[in-house]
Task: structure prediction
Amino acid sequence: MFDNIRNWRLRRIVARHPIAESLWRDALQRCTAARRLGASDQATLRVLATQFLERKSLEPTKGLHLDDAGRVLLAAHACVPILKLGLDWYDGWHSVIVYPDAFIPRRTKTDEAGVVHQTNSMMAGEAWGRGPVILSWADVLNTGKKPGHNVVIHEMAHKLDMLNGDANGFPPLHRRMDRRVWSRVFSSAWDSLKSEQRNGADLPIDPYALESPAEFFAVASEQFFEDPATLRQHLPEVYRQLEQFYRQHPF
Ligand SMILES: [Zn+2]
Result:
């Protein structure tokens, strides 16, 4: 019953505010993770992106102008992680604030509200526990220039992580997943990357992952969608856990 009402509302939203074909095709061209999907998943992504634009408020600031193409691109990136989970996984927050470029956050310390950030000074993105996602538009446009990087997916992964409390690299797992396996896989990957790093080796993942378990999950999520082959090759067990969590098989 609820599903029917829900589906009906959904179809109405999509019918009223469809994303124009040319804008959607343009977004697919520019979003590696979306381009990799099959036709039916791309169609689902388009519905989710439509709903995302309907439910969330994209708020350009500091003189940035976000045109329709930019909005659709941002929504496409943002909906990749929840393609098989549903937009409900982004409940509890409303705004995406977009700066023209890397920004310096107004606050100076990490507080108890579960604030997570990417660097201590200039930041490409930030996600607050029950508050907004903040993004640098220049970094969104740079997505994919460095393989494996996607600031939108990174911040959305923090949002998923924070669904069950602080960002700690432990999002709410599905019923058939095993928390102990998740912990074991992520901590043993962490340990071996740390020792590779001490030996001066090039890491197969952005070293920023080793800032904290929360960053490990967010950076691994970026790579899972942007450069799945590399993640699967070097961190196959992490890859498998993310496959189960996101319910996607990008490689
Ligand atoms: Zn982060």
User: Anything to note?
Assistant: The longest helix spans residues 179-198. The CA atoms of residues 40 and 46 lie 10 Å apart. The domain at 2-246 is CATH 1.10.472.150 (Cyclin A; domain 1). The mean pLDDT is 90.
